[in-house]
Amino acid sequence: MEIAEDYVEAVAELIESNGSCRVTDLAEYFGVTHVTVIKTVQRLERDGLLTTEPYKPVELTSAGRQMAQECKERHDIVYQFLIAIGVDEAAAAVDAEGIEHHVSPATLAAFKKIAQK
What we know:
The chain is mainly alpha-helical. The chain folds into 2 domains: 2-66, Orthogonal Bundle (Arc Repressor Mutant, subunit A); 69-115, Orthogonal Bundle (Diphtheria Toxin Repressor, domain 2). It is built from 6 helices and 2 strands, in the order αααββααα. It has helices spanning 2-18, 23-30, 34-46, 62-84, 89-99, 105-115, and strands at residues 50-51, 59-60. It has a two-stranded antiparallel sheet with strand order 1-2. Strand 1 (50-51) and strand 2 (59-60) form a beta hairpin. The chain is elongated, with a radius of gyration of 15 Å.
């Protein structure tokens, strides 16, 4: 699930910043091979999160867009929580990327309360 979340987040970010997302963009983003991205994109297509065709950009399905939005919100809450407790921005950015995938809804709600103070 973590890889799926990372990929849909990346596709959403790349579409927002570049206007589109291609397999080569994802390979560069993750620092992996073109083949690795193709295999992952194919799996996420089967899971109903992405769509693509040969020589066309990678797109998010509605389920993929929803997952990307939820991941972004979770990431932002964790990041803001870490900043609120005194973690420096660089460390908070790195740590939030890992924590966001494993935080429970109850813990995330507690983080959100502290982050909003």
